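CO-FOLDING WORKSHEET

Operator: S.A.
Ligand of interest: flavin mononucleotide
Run index: 261
Mode: holo prediction, single chain
Checklist:
[x] sequence pasted
[x] SMILES validated
[ ] output reviewed
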Amino acid sequence: MDIPVKKWYEAVQTRYSQQKYMTKEIKPFTLKSLEKKIAELNQIYPEVRIEIFKKSIKEILPALQGKYGNFTDSPAFMAFVINDNGEHRWTKMGYIGEAVILEATALGLGTCWVGARYVPERSRVKLNLKRGERLVAVSPIGYSSENYNLTRHFISKLFPHRDRKNVRELCPDGYDPDWPGWVKNAIKLGSYAPSRLNRQPWRFYYGDKKLVVDCKGEPSAYKRLECGIALLHLEIGALDGGTSGKIEFGGLGLASFVSES
Ligand SMILES: Cc1cc2nc3c(=O)[nH]c(=O)nc-3n(C[C@H](O)[C@H](O)[C@H](O)COP(=O)(O)O)c2cc1C
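OUTPUT RECEIVED:
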């Protein structure tokens, strides 16, 4: 994936899950930019795709079993759709999905991953899923109306991601302060990834220029998705830290970033 490093690095710092939205329409130019990016990202892996619906998130939420939180109406939502076949599809969904979330954040839009089992009969929106496709998550998009946003922004500048696990806990085989700068930067950004109830299931391992992400315990579908989210954060952190390289799925863990410099 072609990563706009500075833009998404900044978006990682400013992104927060937003549940409250203004009903104000999204500016046409903003929506167009986001749709253009989605069209690009939808080309990367045939197993996953994202689509924007200009309907309120509340139209789809009744069909999601196990979601949590109190959402207000939003001018639009994004649907995260997975094919029933294909290797690493859940991890790829997290990786591509978070790219769209960060792009939306950079465009000034609020987002919130909502991942839960979809019961089509309860949906008020027709999703036009193709045979073998399944909705695995959604996110509202729109302008956030959470009035503590400014305070949050201020606090997050002072205490960036104070509610995340310590990097030492996230590296069960040890965290070495003498690791290259890009590795430490990648792990820091990886730790800022969003996850259900902020459980942070990812764990990181480094050796031989390879930064591996795996999950704690059994790799359930949603843990795989969350590790895919963390993988994108790792890649942004690694590139921002001055290395070049590529990501790989599978291998020692669920996925890795491999440095080539
Ligand atoms: C797969 C997934 C599902 C989530 N589901 C919900 C949800 O149903 N309701 C909600 O309010 N937040 C949901 N979240 C958002 C998390 O609660 C949030 O990411 C976490 O608490 C960390 O906060 P932050 O995103 O503001 O950094 C979900 C996040 C992920 C990654």
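REVIEW:
Strands lie at 48-53, 64-65, 76-83, 114-115, 117-118, 133-141, 202-207, 210-215, 245-249, 255-259.
The chain has two domains: 5-141, 161-259.
[x] output reviewed
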